Amino acid sequence: MNNIFKFSFYIFLTLAFAWLAFVVGAKNQYGDLEPTAESLEEDGSIPIDAELYPKSMPGIAQQGAKDYLSLGCVTCHTQQVRSEESGFDVERGWGKRPSVPRDYILQNEVLLGHNRVGPDLANIGLREYSTEWLHQHLFMPQTLVDGSICQPSPFLYDVSEEPSEGYIESKSDDKTVYIKPSFRANRIVAYLESLKQDYELPEIAFSETDDEDLKEVDVTVASADTNDTSKSLPTWLATQIESGKEIYMKAAPGGGLCFTCHQPNGQGISGQFPPLAGSDWVLGEKERLIKISIHGLMGEIEVNGVKYNNVMAPPGIPPGSLTDQQIADVLTYIRNEWGNSASAVSPEEVATVRLTVKDRAAMQMWTAAELQKENSSD
Amino acid sequence: MKKTPEQQIDQSAKFAFSFFVASAGLWLLAAALLAYIASAKLTDPLFLSSWEFFTYGKIKISQANAFVYGWGGNSIFAVSLWIIARLSQSAVRGSILLITAGAVWNLAITAGLLGILDGHMLGHELLEMPKEVWPALFVSYLVIAFIIFVIFRSRRQKVTIAPQWFIIAALIWFPCLFLFAWNGLEINEGRGTLQSILSMWFGQNIIWLWLTPVALGCAYYIIPSVLNRPIDKYYLAIFGFWCIAGLAPWSVVHHLEGGPVPMWVPAIGTVMSIAMVFPIAVASTNFHSTAFQDISRVWNYLPLRFVIFGTLSYTISSYIGVIFSLPAVAKLTQFSIINEFHFNQRVYGFFSMIIFGIVYHILPQVTGKEIGTAAKNFHFWTSALGVFGLLLAYLIGGLTHGVLAQQPSLGWVTVIESVKPYFLITEYAFLILGFSQLVFVLNLWKVLVPNPFSCCENDAEQKTA
d(Cα A180, Cα A173) in Å, to the nearest integer? Predict the structure, then answer.
C-alpha cells in the first residue's frame, strides 16, 4: 500500500480482471458469430439454399443508423427484447422472440440503449406503421399520438402550406401542413423500417405467446385503420362495427381492453385465452355473449373443443362500465370480423338481457356451466 | 512573517487550485442549464423544438458529459491536488504545466460538447464526445495526474492513509478504464453486442471508480481533520477500499439483465452488486460513527454538513441500488427512469455535495477569504431541497414507470402519461438546483477572481486579520 508502483499495479489488476472476463471472455465466447439459417441440419451444418439471417441492412438504413445516433434517439429508446424471465417485452408485443447476440453482428452502430421513455424499437419495422406514418411521427409525434413526449424534428422536413408532389399531409388540431422529407428523414425512416427480428435462429425460436401479427401498441393507429369489409355493408352496421372495433382496441377509459387477451387478430393466446375468430360461442347465442359482457366469465370453458380455464373480468375500463350501446357495438364487431359473419346485436337486446340479470351482483362472474344450463332449460 | 508549512503548501497550490475550481464552477453552471433545458423538454416536447441543436437526446447527453468531465474532472483535479499536497506535506510544483494541461482539458471538453450538439456523437456511454477530442483529453489528464503523483511520491510520511488510497486509485483508474474502452470500441472494434457490454462497463465505472472514490477520499480526509478525532473503526477502511476496487468493476454490468448478451455477464454483475453491501457498510460505519460522536460540530461547520449529507446520501442510495439490482426488482425497473435516480443521486446527492463541502473547507485556507455564511446556508438548503425533490421524483416516478410498463395491456402513452407529473417535479428541482449553484459559483468567483494571482495582497489581509 505504501509503494506507489505496487499499489498502482494492484489497482490496474482489479480492472484488468474484470476486463479479461467481460471483454476477452465474451469475445472468445461469441465474437465470431456468423449469419446462419433459421434451422440447421441434424449434423449442425447449414442447409443448402437456406436463407441466412440476420441480413445486413440496406445501405440507406446504415446511413440512417448514424442519423439516429446523431439525434440522440438512443437516450429514450432501447433496441432489445428482453428474455421472458427478465421482462414482459414479448407480451407487450415488442418482438416475436427475445433478442440474441447474433441479431446485432452486422450492425455498425449497436444501439441497445438502457432507457425506455419511449417504446422499444428492436422490431419497429414489423409493426403496422406506414412509411408516411413514420414521417408524420418524426415530424410532429403529437399529431398522431396524443400525449406523446417524443421530440418533434421539424428541421428534417421542408414544410409547405399547399399540397404538392412528394409532400405528405400532416394534420394537427388547428392546421394542416404538407411536409417533404429531407434525405436525412428518409434515411432515418429506412433505418427504422429495417429494424426487425422476424426470423428464427437455431438458438432461439419464436415465443409461444406470439401470434401472427404483432400486437398493436398504439391505439390510435389501430383505430385509424379503415376496415375494408365495412365498405360493402349498410351504413348503420358499418358504424356499429367501426365503433365496436374502437372499443375492442381501446386501452383507456371508455374502452373495452378486449385485444389484450383475445388479441387484435381475434386468435386469443393458445392455452390461455380462447379465440374469438370462428368461435362457436361468439357465433352462437347472443344472450350468453351479452351476459358475459355485463358480468364477466370465470372457470373452465370449452371453445371449439379446446378447454380454457381463466378469468375474464367484466369488460370495460373500469370493469363493467360499458353501456348498452357499447356492448352492442363490440359484440357486433366480433361477430363480423376475422371471417366471422353473424347477426348484429342491438342496444335494445342488451337492455332486455340486462333487465333479466339485474339482481345479480356487479362482479359476480358467470361460469360456462351456468350459462349452458340456463340456456338448455329455456 | 514566518509562514507555517501548511500555509506554504496552500500558497503553492493556490494558483492551480483556483484555476480548477473556477472552471469546475463554470461547467457546473453549464450542466445545470442543460439539465434544466432537458427536463423542460420532457414536460413540453415543443419547447425549443425547431432547433436541431436543442434536440432532447443531444442536450441530455451533453449534460451528462459536461457534468462528469467538466465539473467532475476539474473538481477532482482541484481537491486531489490540495489534499495530496497537504497529506504529503510537500509543496505543489509545476503550476504552469498544471494550468496549461487544465486549459487543454477544458478546451477539449468544450469542443467535444459542441461536437455532440452538432451531431457527431459516438454511441458509447459517457464516451460520446467525438473521437478527435479524446487524445487531447487523455494527454492533458496524464500530465495533471503525473504531477499529483510526483507530489505524492515526495511525501514525508511513508505510511499512507485512506484518503490517499482512494484519490490515488481514482487517478489511476480513469486512464486504465479509458484505454480498455478505447481499445475495444475504436481500435479492435468488437462486433455486435460486445460493444454494448464494454460501453456499459465503461460508462458505469466512470461513476464508480472515478467520481465515487474521490468523494470517499475527501470524506475520509475532512471528517477526522475537522472533528479532530480518528476515524472510528479505521481498521475496516482498508477492507472497504479493496472491496470497492475488487467488486465495482464486476458489478456494473448488471444493467444488461435479460439483454442480448451471454447470461453470465449480468449474472456476475448481480452477484457482485449484492456483495457491494460490504464496502458500503464499511464506509458508512467509518463516516457516521465518527461524525455522530460530535454531531453539533458537524451541524455548525457548514462544509462538514455538506459532506455528511453526501455520505448519508451515498449510504442510503447505494443500498437502494443494491435492491434494484436484484433480478426480481430489476425486471420492473431496469429501463425506467430509476436510471436517472441512480445517476443523479451519485453525481448530485453524493459527489457534488461532498465536493461543495470540501471546496468550502479549502477555499478560506487557500485564498484567505471566506464566503458569507448566509450565501453558504442558502446554497446548502436549496441544494438539499433540490436534490431531495429530484431524487424522490425519480424514485417514485421510476417505480411507477417500471411497474406500469410491465402491464402489456396498457398503451405506452398511458404509461408515460402517468410519469409526466414526476417529470414536472424534476423540472422544478433542476430549476432550484440551478439557482442554488448559480449562487455558489458567483460567490466562488467573487473570492477567486478579483486577484487570484497576487500573493502580497492576501498576505497583507492575513496580517491585519
Answer: 20
Report ipTM for this prediction.
Answer: 0.89
Q: B79 Cβ partners below 8 Å, 6+ apart? A: B214, B218, B355, B358, B359, B362
CA proximity to B220, closest of B329, B416, B354, B129: B354
Question: Contact, A35 vs A105, CB < 8 A?
Answer: yes
Closest CA to B310 of B243, B425, B440, B220: B220
Structure confidence by residue, pLDDT tens digits, A152-197 = 999 999 998 888 888 888 888 778 899 999 999 999 999 999 999 9
- Nearest chain A residue to B47 by CA distance is A151
Q: What average pLDDT score do residues B187-213 get? A: 91
> pLDDT tens-digit profile of A188-228?
999 999 999 999 998 888 887 544 444 444 444 444 444 44
Q: So what's the pLDDT on residue B46?
A: 87
3-state secondary structure of B223: helix
Q: What is the dihedral of CA A87, A93, A96, A100, to 10 degrees?
A: -40
Q: Kindly state which CATH superfamily the domain B5-464 is placed in.
A: Cytochrome c oxidase-like, subunit I domain (1.20.210.10)
Averaged confidence pLDDT in chain B: 91
Please name the member of A31, A74, A85 whose beta carbon is closest to the beta carbon of B123.
A74
B456 has a pLDDT exceeding 70: no
Q: By the CB < 8 Å criterion, does B117 face chain A?
A: no
Nearest CA in chain B to A67: B119
Domains and CATH numbers, chain A: 31-151+184-209 (1.10.760.10), 226-377 (1.10.760.10)
Q: Do A110 and B195 touch (CB under 8 A)?
A: yes
Judge whether residue A242 has pLDDT over 60. yes
DSSP string, B152-220: HHT-S--S--HHHHHHHHHHHHHHHHHHHHHIIIIISPPPTTHHHHHHHHHHHHHIIIIIHHHHHHHHH
* pLDDT the model gives residue A229: 42
Flag whether pLDDT at B465 surpasses 50: no
pLDDT at A378 over 80: no
Tell me the domain boundaries of chain B.
Answer: 5-464
Instruction: Tell me which amino acid residue B271 is.
Output: V
d(CA B43, CA B423) in angstroms, rounded, equals: 6
Q: Are B53 and B437 spatial neighbours (Cβ–Cβ below 8 Å)?
A: no
Residues of A in contact with B152 (CB under 8 A): 4
Q: Could you give the angle at the alpha carbon of B340 between the alpha carbons of B377 and B77, nearest 5°?
A: 60
**Close Cβ partners of B412 (under 8 Å, ≥ 6 residues apart):** A118, A119, A217, A218
The residue with cell 483508474 is: B173
- Which residue of chain A has the CA closest to B38? A151
Residues 6 or more apart whose Cβ sits within 8 Å of residue B90: B9, B151, B154, B155, B156
Give the residue carrying C-alpha cell 485564498: B367
> What pLDDT is recorded for position B450?
64
